[in-house]
């Protein structure tokens, strides 16, 4: 009985860690995408102002 509880506990902890890490990775990806969009946006505005693609 105790063995079963231990196994279940281990499984639960592993799945929890997996979910947390996935969420963390997802947040990191979102952050990077947001940063990338900001950079692209700034670049695009800069290009519109200067109308020179080489400046980017």
From TrEMBL:
State the UniProt keywords alphabetically.
Acyltransferase, Membrane, Transferase, Transmembrane, Transmembrane helix
A single GO molecular function term of this UniProt record: acyltransferase activity
Q: Where are the transmembrane segments?
A: 29-48
Tagged with keyword Transferase: yes
Q: What is this protein called?
A: Lysophospholipid acyltransferase LPCAT4
């Amino acid at each position: 009985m105790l063995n079963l509880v231990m196994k279940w506990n281990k499984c639960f902890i592993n799945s929890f860690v997996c979910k947390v890490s996935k969420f963390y990775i997802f947040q990191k990806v979102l952050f990077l995408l947001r940063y990338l969009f900001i950079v692209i946006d700034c670049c695009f505005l800069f290009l519109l102002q200067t109308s020179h693609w080489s400046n980017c």
